[in-house]
Write a structure and sequence with these properties.
13-stranded antiparallel sheet, about 375 residues, Jelly Rolls, elongated, 2 helices, 2 domains, seven-stranded antiparallel sheet, mainly beta
Length: about 375
């Protein structure tokens, strides 16, 4: 009996030391396996640096019948030192709604050498989610194999890049749901993938807290918006006073803000032809006529209407200010809303091209005003 207890104790110690994680069997999927579905401008199974590899550019490859909620995805990747975006997708409900981690070889050594972002309705959101917990400095090896491992459980994920310890821990933005796993590479450059493996996690496995710096929502932060159905943003060009055409929009949905007040508008809508803009509405009751300071951020364009009249326009797209400008969101703009006594309607017409469709706002203070949001 003592011998059996000793064996159990040794096994338990090994399990605890390894986190109960990597002792599980990992399933390797050969790229010739018919389970793979590849949609790309270029793709081919080749021999590369001594490994059987999937060469891919401008598309994705995913396992058609594998649904994974919590687990481990790991693979080797070989890239050149040139602009590119290649990595893994997981918990994909389809190829427009998924979690995404990718590397940026051309940013090796920089804080944005890689990126975690959710994708909603086909809109990636790296302009909304940046900084700690979304990217980390990493030095890449080029034209050699690098090993990447992504461990995801609950609302968190760990990323390993040629390392025994995670280089980044992220809070996942999408609600946990079992989904597809796979690989992808943008159309900018070619990536080679080898030794793709998937394994499940033991039930109850947890991941340490994210490195993301989350500012708590204060009463001054706008915590929810009324968001319209999409429309063609060009219809607002030169419009100084909203017409009945725009004011008659009847399809409105509530959308709550996330940490720091960021609101990802793509949760409700994707981009459609000639429909790249939504109204994000604030309804404000003021106890008297006053100016109220409001700091805000947006991606990619905005036109602010106060009680139907144009008050501010802004342009925050990628490379819109110089060739290094990313167009990331933050409380970088400030306006003073001219509020009348009683009810006021403030509309942010937020347009999107790519990289993130978002809005956030925070009042200087709430004295003399009340948000009276209503979908009626």
């Amino acid at each position: 009996m003592k011998k059996r207890n000793s064996v159990f104790q040794i096994t338990l110690i090994i399990y605890l030391l390894t986190g109960g994680l990597f002792t599980a069997h990992a399933e390797r999927y050969d790229f010739d396996d018919p389970l793979w579905e590849v949609t790309a401008t270029e793709s081919e199974v080749v021999s590369h640096l001594g490994q059987k590899a999937l060469k891919i550019k401008g598309g994705t490859a995913h396992l058609k019948d594998l649904q994974l909620l919590d687990g481990v995805v790991e693979f080797d990747v070989s890239v050149a030192r040139e602009r590119g975006f290649m990595g893994a997708l997981f918990r994909a409900q389809d190829m427009r709604n998924l979690e995404h981690f990718y590397i940026r070889p051309h940013q090796t050594g920089n804080v944005d050498a890689n990126q975690y972002t959710p994708v909603y309705n086909g809109v990636s959101a790296w302009q909304l989610y940046h900084g700690e917990g979304f990217g980390v400095s990493a030095d890449y090896r080029f034209d050699r194999w690098m090993h990447i491992k992504i461990v995801f459980a609950g609302d968190r994920a760990e990323v390993y890049i040629d390392s025994d310890e995670p280089v980044m821990t992220s809070t996942l933005k999408r609600q946990p749901a079992a989904g597809l796993v796979g690989l992808n590479s943008s159309g900018f450059s070619t990536a080679y993938f080898a030794n793709f493996e998937v394994s499940e996690l033991p039930e109850g496995y947890t991941i340490a807290a994210s490195q993301e710096v989350e500012s708590p929502l204060t009463e001054e932060t706008v915590s929810e918006w009324l968001v319209s159905s999409p429309f063609d943003g060009q219809t607002l060009n030169g419009v100084l006073q909203l017409s009945s055409e725009h004011e008659s929009i009847s399809d409105w949905d509530w959308l709550s803000s996330e940490a720091a007040g960021i609101t990802n508008l793509a949760k409700l809508h994707g981009l459609e032809e000639d429909k790249n803009t939504v109204f994000a509405k604030l309804q404000i009751n003021a106890d008297k006529e006053q100016l109220k300071g409001l700091s805000f951020g947006y991606s990619d364009t905005v036109a602010v209407y106060v009680n139907g009249r144009l008050f501010y326009t802004g342009y925050n797209t990628y490379e819109s200010r110089d060739y290094r400008y990313l167009g990331t969101i933050g409380l970088f703009q400030k306006i003073y809303l001219p509020l009348q006594a009683g009810e006021n309607e403030v509309l942010f017409a937020v347009g999107e091209s790519f990289g993130g469709w978002g809005i956030q706002a925070q009042f200087d203070d709430m004295s003399g005003i009340t948000l009276t949001q209503s979908s009626e």
